[in-house]
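Example record

The entry below shows one chain as it appears in the dataset: sequence first, then C-alpha cells.
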Amino acid sequence: MPRFTKKELIEGVECVSSKKIANNTIEYHRENGERVIRHFFTDILTFKPNGDVVIDCGGYRSFTTKERLNRYLENANIFQERNVWYLGSWSTPKQDRIVYFDGIIIDKNGKVKNPLPQNSIDNQEKAKKNFDKLVKAYLDKVRGMEKLPRPSGGDCWYCAMHTKEGESWGDISGDTEHIKKHLRTKCIQGSLIFNALLHKGYRYPDVIFQMSRYNPDSKKDSHSMVCEALRKYFRDKLFTPTGAKHIPAKKSKTTVCAVSIQG
C-alpha cells in the first residue's frame, strides 16, 4: 500500500489547519468550524459545529477504512457481517441494526438522522444474494481449471495495464465495469488474477502461477489462494451496498505500462 505525505493528502483542500494523524490519514479544519478526517483522498468523517457527523467512505469499504471510522467516531460504531456494514455492535439485535451507507448522518447522541427506508434494505439483501451467486459460479470455474491462465497482451487492458507504482489502469480511472463484465461472463484472465493476488497482499503473484503447474498438491494450494483473492477482489471492487456512491481513485501522473510475467 502506498504511503502519501501530508502535502499530497491535503492537495487542493481549503482549510485553516491540518495535521497527519495516521498512515494516509489527516485531520483538518474548515473556516466554517467543521473538523474533517480524511483517509487517502476521501473525507470519511465530517464533524459539524452542531454535533452532527457525516460518514462517507466513498465506496471504499476496506478493513483500514472501517478501522479509521471506528477510531475517530465518538458516539457510534460500525461493524461488518457477511460483507454488509451496520451501525451498532454484534450484540445489537438484527431488527435494531441500521444499515450503513455513504452520507449517513449521526447526531450528537448517536442517533441516525437519515436512515434508509426498508425497501432499500430489502433490495440490498437481494443484491448481495445475487452477487454471491455470481462469485460462486466464477470461482467454481477457476477451481475446475487444469492450469491458471497467465497475464498476456490479449487480456483486458483495464486489467493488464499498470502504472510504475503497480496500480491497474482500471483503478486509476475508477472504472469497474470491466470487472463486472468479467464476473458476469465468467471470463477468467491472468491479469485479473494477478491484480486480485496483489490486492490480497501477495508480493510475488508469479510464484502462485508457477505453483499451479507442478504437482497436484501445489495446484490445489495455488487454486485455493487464487479463489480467496478473487473473492476479496470482487467484493471490495464491486459490492457497493444501497446508497453508496463510488468516487474514482486519484488519477496517477505516471506512465502506464503492461504487466509481463515470463515463463
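Notes for this example: The chain is about 40% helix and 15% strand. The longest strand covers residues 17-22.
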